[in-house]
Design a protein that fits this description.
The complex is a heterotrimer of chains A (about 425), B (about 90) and C (about 1000). By secondary structure, chain B is of the alpha+beta class. Chain B has two helices and six strands; from the N terminus they run βββαβββα. In chain C, about 20% of the residues lie in helices and about 25% in strands. In chain C, the strands form 13 sheets. In chain C, strands 8, 9, 12, 13, 14, 15 and 28 form a seven-stranded mixed sheet that branches. A six-stranded mixed sheet of chain C has the order 42-43-44-41-35-45. The chains are: A alpha/beta (about 425), B alpha+beta (about 90), C alpha+beta (about 1000). Chains A and C meet through helix 1, helix 5, helix 7, strand 12 and helix 9 of A and strand 6, helix 3, helix 9, helix 10 and strand 31 of C.
């Protein structure tokens, strides 16, 4: 069923009788060509592109809970391609370009909204670093601008310009950055995959992997064994747990990142903004809530919830930056589990097991990567060759000394 | 969270800085071990969902490094030891 | 019309009258009123509009679960959006306005959405607005954004203060109703340290809203008596107006105390609210229960209210919401509303009881097996349509309808650790499940004990059990109280109609939306929530969630427990951002660290810059200088010509002592320190274990077993932490002790050809080149005061760093400048420091970026392979040793007037601006008055092989494209003759 304004009107006038299930609930088949483990954003996008762009069939996505229940269902919805390093920037720019055509591509309104993102600058050293980054972005074909303090003030006059502990001195801006309705991304990919024959199997947890002679034969699940020629794992947050079934120890730790939303408010912040002197970034959803976040809690956790110090830290950053939000109320906090990798960058790679592929280590940057991650993982699965924009995301980069360390923090996951 | 410091008693976790898996204590000797062992030591992790022995530093306190055994699912802490004692028990000296 | 709906009784103080206004109309109320009770007393029921359809709305509840009656409270910078009128305490002069309505609450233009509702079904926006592609952002989304949102922020700074505090207790009791009071009393009498927190301003919970007796007393009087006794106990802290908003690990709870929200403005020196972090050994959740509605067509009109709330307005606030009241219930508790209202003389026109059979209420028209199927009244209820047991429908005139669909225990906080509640069929509700926060027990209605006796007993028992684990005996005796059984036959929604029946009234989620979600296979509870927005409004589904999932259960044919539930997350009720931030805002966002010369420099008119939490002197203007460059150039030239003084106290300083101190330094530094002679300094390069450069600095050997390390300002804390890690975790038997002395010593750099002459005037010992050669270090005295001297140079000049105990730092800067007067000594700031270090090619912030190796910096040979040091092995990985990798270079514009900018990228001359041409970037840039042009350092691919070449330094952001020459990073005195002078 194709969605359109015409369809919505036609259904409204006929009592909404014609809407169909957005996806089927098929029983798992005995064997597939491809099994994607993980029905979050990356897994669903992988299945979608495998079917649509790489012409593959006999594909299943196995999800232990509900579709879109991964980190695609709990994030702060920001998209951008303002990365510093050459290993990252082409990939994220590829992703941003896919975002730009996504809704027409999968015929679902995910509300991609390029409202612009600004990274505020508070010191000369930050300006130097952001200048380096902005020029790198432009050399990679992305867009970047340097804003003066006055330009920032014209956009957001209510920021703390007069009494700030760390004065605002300008900002790096990417106008093509913005926000996307996160759940709709999962649903749009799921619907598109289902329409192309992909079996989306919910409540199906992978409990083991059947590996013989160095080759994967399929996965054990809570709904029985399912055979597969190739298995791609995209379960960021739980990567270590799942890959342990293949005897792998991964270069990552699982950490909790909290995110926050305020009560609904009339339009207050138009774009996306990051504070450069504390842990706070914010945008406002179309529904009116301020959506914001800060630093990870900083200790290994699978608990999907955080603690008070980080909530306070984020609020402090928010109030330091925009003292006009004092009377806005925090409505809800939640915690997602991040694969925090050893250099802060992801992995899309083959493994030592033939037919077993891995996608993870997204730290807290996975949402914006969703389209490119799916595309590049599908590319790797279908062609056994990395996509050119994801060629650096290899396991062996740590052994070879080719880390992609945006923040320069080294092998300490909670600092990335 | 509250960490029951073996010398100082219960302290708010905010006084501490977290480093990571206590396996970092088992550093290979650079004169005998090569890149591969250092790579495995520094980069790869068990990352368990369950009991995890991990290093915390009492920065806003007595500067002790502690090995805290904590459940990464429930956050329950079942044991706190001085990292120095753990290191010695694992054969580290000079 | 003054308080036309006020009836006798209630817990308000009629001896005082408060004046207040809503949408500019003046009204009167009394102390003890909420804004909602006072408006209802004045006959005002229309208080808001819904989010999507802009339907007229009155309060659904009398508590914090309120989804409808949201207003903007106060005016000006104190305007507070989305304030629930049902919990806003009335004060004299209160001003409130309606929100999400234009031009007025009664005539709201966007109520057109209600007419178009058939188009605006759940998730309709995901299916449209895609054509043409550009229209989403340009046309559709701006319209949606303007229409969305509820109340407004003013964009002015919040003028109120907020505080934070810490509290400790044996037992935290959450909620001050019968269960909470009994728990606190039991624990308090037993001598435990107790905190009792309740969100209400009056303790007693439902006892204040009911007509029950407890023992010989009215319930409210019993509650007041217990509160008085608790207040008299020194081991009990009563915290009314305090909401426990979150349960965190290890017994830590967040509480918000509304210190001043019941006042027009906070008293002088008082915060508006305080965030308490409560550390408890045991906690008892006595948070009561929340009533839920029954969905039927047009069940959202002003005047349709939860039965317990309607009864609370009558019993507690002396307000009859209407003068012709009907009751719709599926349980016995709803009947109480009819009884109580009748007892207060209000006309109860009918009780519509969905259950067939049972006892009939005496003296009231009691329709059994009947259902309310519709209502009428645009801005307020005028009638209801009832379908009787025999199928006959009847319109009954009523201007208030009390609805009871049963009570949901307030399990909210027990879910904060992601424990899922469990379903109990006998009360048709969820109760706390296993795996909730450790040492938290629920009691009373929160645990599913919904009678007063059950609450009292549950509270006392929970306290007894909690104290037992703490080794205290806590006997108790219970007063008599009602113990009526729960008699409920679940009814979630009234079927058969074609119209809309609301489940989540704020977000306008109706039964139809749930059905559509089911039809489209958004059947999991999480999909239901996300697709329909059920439970995502400001009330977080406190009244609607169970309804929604019960209806989904019915549609899927599964049981309610099999359908599952979404879980509650913190906070329990929304919390002001200001409260969470406390005092950490404005200039107090982070503490200031001031250097020992700060006061002196301030007197001199110095300009300061933030460096982490430090404020450092950036430059020190002289009279007549109009630009910063004038000052900085002067400082540089004067230093190179004669002598300059710079406060370098912010550099990290670590004393390292012990017989293994040298061996220890050999581990943490890439180069060797055990061989350093006593009385000498050496530049040290510190790597992370991954082989990247971590930090650098000079370390001096003050004695055979004593070293003094300096770190960069930025890494002072992290280096010290790292050293402790190496000492305790890796080499636990090394005899070495560390202490950070960054704050203990004031340290000044004295640099320039006359540095020695200046210092010799102050230093008691001979510091001639022979006595104190280049890279010398030692303990000295200045006028008899112990001090340290290091002959090290960051500027490239003959230079020393002299340190005295911090309390003499101010005296020393004054002494140095006085002694320097004859040499025209200058004091220079971080800018001049930067100019001179770049002229000398020393790496600092821009180069020490955590992404660079010693090889990148041209310091590869410093990494000794003859010993094991942190980072030595992994620095040898192939990817970090490629000939085409980055190397530190110097950069000069070909045209001396050419402009360099840090962050510009290197491109080959003539190469297109694409990734493949990218050669690296300029890390740091200054204007060198010595060379008369901009100079920079940069990381250039294979830069060591490109010295002498010409390239472009391009900054696309400023459209600057400068032809540059790649040179050695040592611009000035490359042989280092000056510093050895």
């Amino acid at each position: 069923m194709r969605y359109s304004g015409f369809r919505v009107i036609a259904e409204a006038l006929t009592g909404h009788k014609g809407w169909k299930p957005v996806w089927r609930d098929p029983a798992p088949q005995a064997e597939y060509d491809y099994i994607i483990v993980g029905g979050g954003g990356h897994g669903l996008a992988t299945a979608y592109y495998l079917a649509k762009e790489f012409g593959q069939a006999r594909i299943a996505v196995l999800e232990k809970g509900y579709l879109g229940g991964g980190n695609v269902g709990r994030n702060t919805t920001i998209i951008r391609s303002n990365y510093l390093l050459d290993g990252n920037e082409p990939f994220y720019e590829f992703s941003l370009k896919l975002w730009e055509g996504l809704e027409q591509d999968f015929n679902y309104n995910a509300m991609v909204s390029q409202r612009g993102i600004i990274n505020l600058i508070h010191t000369d050293a930050q300006r130097d670093a952001f200048t380096r980054r902005g020029n790198g972005m432009i050399l990679n074909g992305a867009d970047a601008e340097m804003l003066s303090r006055d330009q920032v003030k014209a956009m957001y006059p209510f920021l703390n310009f007069d009494n700030a502990r760390f004065p605002i001195k300008g900002a790096l801006m990417q106008r093509r950055g913005g926000t996307v309705r996160h759940d709709a991304v999962a649903w749009g990919y799921a619907r598109g995959a289902d329409m192309r024959g992909v079996d989306l199997i919910q409540n199906c947890e992978v409990t083991g992997m059947r590996i013989e002679n160095g080759r994967i034969l399929g996965v054990e699940t809570s709904r029985g064994f399912i055979g597969a020629k190739k298995v791609g794992v995209a379960v960021a947050g739980s990567s270590s747990k799942v890959m342990a079934h293949a005897g792998m120890r991964l270069p990552m730790e699982s950490h909790v990142l909290q995110a926050f939303v305020s009560e609904g408010l009339k339009p207050f912040i138009d774009g996306v903004m990051t504070f450069g002197a504390g842990h706070f970034y914010v945008s406002q959803s179309d529904k009116g809530g301020l959506v914001f976040g800060g630093d990870i809690d900083g200790y290994n956790s699978y608990a999907q919830r955080g603690n008070l110090p980080v909530i306070e830290d984020v609020a402090e950053g928010g109030m330091a930056l925009m003292p006009a939000i004092g009377r806005a109320r925090l409505l809800r906090t939640w915690g997602g589990i991040m694969d925090m990798s050893m250099d802060g960058s992801p992995i899309i790679d083959k493994t030592h097991v033939d037919g077993l592929y891995f996608n993870g280590g997204w730290c807290y940057g996975g949402f914006k990567a969703t389209p490119a991650s799916g595309w590049c993982f599908a590319h790797l699965l279908a062609k056994d060759e990395p996509h050119k924009t994801a060629a650096a995301y290899r396991f062996d980069r740590f052994l070879k000394g080719l880390m992609i360390d945006e923040k320069g923090q080294g092998a300490q996951p909670n600092l990335h | 969270m509250i960490i029951n410091h073996p010398i100082l008693g219960p302290r708010d976790a905010q006084e501490f800085v977290y480093l990571g898996d206590a396996s970092l204590i088992d550093r290979p000797d650079g004169m005998t071990a090569g890149i591969e062992s250092f790579h495995d030591y520094l980069y790869n992790r068990d990352n368990p969902a369950g009991l995890h022995r991990e290093l915390w530093y009492h920065e806003q306190g007595d500067r002790s490094w502690l090995v805290v055994t904590r459940n990464t699912v429930s956050h329950e802490i079942t044991s706190v030891e001085l990292a120095r004692d753990v290191a010695r028990a694992r054969g580290r000296s000079k | 019309m003054s308080q036309s709906n006020r009836i006798q009784g209630g817990l308000i103080d009629r001896s005082q009258t408060f004046r207040f206004s809503f949408d500019g109309v003046a009204y009167q109320g009394h102390p003890g009123d909420t804004l909602a009770s006072a408006l209802l007393a004045n006959g005002v029921c229309l208080m808001g509009r819904s989010f999507k359809y802009h339907r007229p709305r009155g309060p659904l509840s009398a508590g914090s679960e309120e989804p409808n009656a949201l207003v903007q409270l106060r005016t000006g910078a104190r305007q507070e959006p989305n304030t629930r009128a049902t919990v806003a305490e009335l004060f004299d002069g209160l001003e409130a306005t309606s929100q999400n309505a234009w031009p007025s609450l009664r005539f709201d233009a966007l109520a057109i959405n209600d007419r178009l509702n058939t188009f605006f079904t759940a998730g309709f926006y995901y299916k449209t607005f895609m054509w043409p592609a550009a229209f989403w952002e340009k046309v559709y989304e701006p319209i949606i954004r303007r229409a969305a949102g509820l109340g407004s922020l003013t964009k002015q700074e919040d003028p109120d203060d907020y505080d934070k505090g810490f509290l400790h207790c044996d037992v935290l009791v959450i909620g001050g109703g019968p269960a909470g009071l009994m728990a606190a009393l039991t624990a308090g009498r037993a001598g435990a340290r107790v905190i009792l927190a309740d969100e209400d301003f009056r303790l007693g919970g439902r006892l204040n809203a009911e007509t029950f007796a407890v023992g010989e007393q009215a319930g409210a009087d019993w509650a007041a008596g217990v509160a008085a006794e608790l207040a008299s106990l020194p081991n009990v802290r009563l915290m009314p107006r305090t909401t426990i908003v979150g349960a965190f690990d290890h017994g830590i709870y967040a509480a918000v105390e509304r210190v001043s929200d019941h006042l027009a403005v906070p008293a002088a020196g008082k915060p508006r609210q305080t965030l308490w972090r409560i550390y408890s050994k045991r906690a008892i959740l006595a948070g009561g229960a929340t009533e839920r509605p029954i969905a039927f067509e047009n069940n959202d009109r002003p005047g349709i209210m939860l039965a317990g709330s309607l009864r609370a307005y009558a019993n507690r606030w002396g307000v009859a919401v209407g003068d012709r009241v009907a009751v719709f219930t599926n349980n016995d508790d709803g009947l109480r509303t009819a009884r109580d209202l009748k007892g207060r003389g209000v006309d109860v026109v009918a009780v519509i009881d969905s259950r067939p059979g049972g006892d009939l209420l005496p003296g009231i028209r009691h329709l059994q097996g009947a259902e309310v199927i519709d209502s009428a009244g645009r801005l307020g209820l005028t009638s209801i349509t009832v379908r009787q047991a025999n199928g006959k429908t009847e319109v009954i005139s009523a201007n208030a309808l009390a609805v009871s669909g049963g009570w949901n225990p307030n399990v909210n906080i027990t879910s904060h650790h992601r424990s899922r509640p469990e379903w109990r069929d006998d009360i048709a509700a969820f109760v706390p499940g296993a795996g909730g926060p450790a040492n938290l027990a629920a009691a009373g209605a929160a645990a599913g004990d919904l009678s007063t006796h059950g609450a009292l007993r549950g509270g006392a028992e929970a306290a007894r059990e909690a104290l037992e684990t703490l080794g205290l005996q806590a006997p108790y005796s219970l007063p008599q109280a009602e113990d009526a059984p729960i008699a409920i036959t679940p009814l979630w929604y009234v079927s058969g109609g074609k119209g809309r029946a609301w489940i989540d009234p704020q977000n306008d989620v109706t039964v139809k939306d749930v059905k559509l979600a089911h039809k489209e296979n958004f059947s999991s509870v999480e999909h239901l929530k996300r697709y329909t927005t059920l439970g995502m409004a400001t009330d977080q589904g406190k009244t609607g969630n169970v309804l929604g999932l019960a209806i989904m259960a019915e549609l899927t044919g599964q049981s309610i427990p099999a359908t599952g539930t979404t879980i509650y997350r913190p906070p329990y009720t929304p919390v002001a951002m200001g409260t969470l931030a406390g005092r950490s805002r404005g200039k107090e966002f982070k503490p200031f660290r001031l250097t020992p010369s700060h006061k002196w420099a301030e007197e001199q008119g110095g300009i300061f810059v933030e460096v982490g939490n430090w404020l450092r002197l950036q430059w020190l203007p002289k009279p007549g200088e109009t630009t910063w460059r004038e000052s900085v150039d002067r400082e540089v030239l004067a230093t190179r010509k004669s002598v300059g003084i710079c406060d370098v106290t912010t550099l990290g300083k670590i004393d390292i002592q012990g017989t293994d101190a040298g061996a220890f330094l050999d581990k943490v530094y890439a180069n060797t320190f055990s061989t350093l002679a006593v009385g000498k300094c050496r530049y040290g390069l510190m790597l992370r274990e991954d082989g990247m450069v971590f930090d650098d600095g000079t370390t001096a050997r003050m004695g055979p077993n004593e070293y003094v390390m300096t770190t960069t300002t930025a890494n002072a804390v992290t280096v010290f932490r790292h050293l402790e890690y190496v000492r305790q975790c890796l080499f636990p038997d090394m005899d070495v002790q560390l202490i950070s002395t960054t704050e203990a010593w004031a340290q000044y750099s004295v640099a320039g050809p006359n540095a020695r002459k200046l210092l010799q005037k102050l230093v008691d010992q001979d510091i001639s080149d022979a006595a104190f050669p280049y890279m010398g270090a030692g303990n000295i005295t200045i006028g008899g005061l112990r001090a340290r001297l290091f002959r090290i140079s960051f500027s490239g000049e003959l230079a020393y760093e002299v340190a005295v105990p911090t309390r003499y730092g101010d005296a020393l800067i004054r002494a140095l400048t006085e002694a320097g007067r004859e040499f025209d000594a200058v004091v220079y700031g971080t800018e001049a420091l930067g100019v001179m270090r770049i002229e000398k090619g020393h790496v600092a912030g821009g180069e020490l970026n955590g992404q660079s190796t010693a090889l990148n910096m041209g310091l590869g040979k410093m990494v000794s392979k003859k010993k094991d040091s942190i980072g030595m092995v992994l620095s040898q990985r192939e990817g970090m040793n490629r000939a085409e990798g980055y190397r530190l270079v110097g950069v000069k514009p070909v045209d001396p007037k050419g402009v360099l900018q840090a962050g510009s990228h290197f491109l080959k001359i003539g190469a297109p601006p694409v990734l493949e041409s990218d050669g690296g970037w300029l890390t740091s840039k200054v204007y060198s008055p010595h060379l008369g042009c901009d100079i920079a350092l940069g990381y250039l691919k294979a830069g060591d092989q490109k010295i002498g070449r010409r390239m472009r330094a391009v900054n696309f952001l400023t459209k600057t494209d400068t032809e540059v020459e790649i040179v050695s990073p040592h611009f000035f005195d490359p042989e280092g003759e000056r510093l050895r002078g």
